[in-house]
Amino acid sequence: MNDLKYMLIAYKQALIAKKNKEVPVGAVAVRNGIIIAKGYNQKIKKKSSLKHAELVVIDKCHKILKSPYLNDVTIYVTLEPCLMCTGALIQSRVNRLVYATPDSKGGAITSVIDINNIKNINHHFIITSGVLQEECSKLLSDFFKEKRGQI
User: Fold this and answer.
1) Catalytic: which of 22, 54, 134, 135?
2) CA-CA distance, 38 to 16, in Å (whole number)?
3) Which of 29, 117, 122, 132 could join 37 via S-S bond, C-beta 3.0 to 4.6 A?
4) CA 145 to CA 151: how far, in whole Å?
């Protein structure tokens, strides 16, 4: 697997988000070694709480693949998905999620909610975490320090 390769692409998407004054989270969708979609947080730009990087990418995948299901897709994201995004991953039937750094305040994969311990959910996906964690974590913490005027 080329997890690092695809996470670096997600990281570049996060840098685009930062440049646009968005929370620097990026995502990439991959199927059979081919990138299907890339995206980043666009909440401010689009004035919508629904424009998390994961949802942007999932929406693009549905349109490109012309299917509501992403059974053979891996989503790479620089931050552990929130409850809303985790729900979208489940509803889309994503095969695998790879995320870089945990979100202790809103992560719904293992941090705040442990999705694998909820047995009655009708779809579970493979989870890999920690890929490029240090870099993605630093990008986020530096962003919020700058925002608070601490840098």
Assistant:
1) 54
2) 11
3) 29
4) 6
Note the pLDDT tens digit of each residue in 38-74: 999 999 999 999 999 999 999 999 999 999 999 999 9
What 3-state class would DSSP assign to 127? strand
Joined tokens for residue 51:
């424009």
Strand pairing partners for 77? Answer: 27, 99
Sign, CA dihedral 130-25-85-105, equals positive
Asked whether 19 and 86 are in contact (CB, 8 A), the reply is no
Question: How far is Cα of residue 126 from the mean position of the Cα atoms in its chain?
Answer: 14
pLDDT digits (tens, 9 = 90+) for 85-103: 999 999 999 999 999 999 9
Q: E-assigned strands of 22-145? A: 26-31, 34-40, 74-79, 96-101, 126-129
Q: What share of the chain is helix, strand, coil (3-state, %, to 5)?
A: 40, 20, 40
The DSSP annotation for 40-85 comes to E--HHHHT-TT--HHHHHHHHHHHHHT-S--TT-EEEEEE---HHH
The Cβ of residue 41 has, within 10 Å, a number of other Cβ atoms equal to: 27
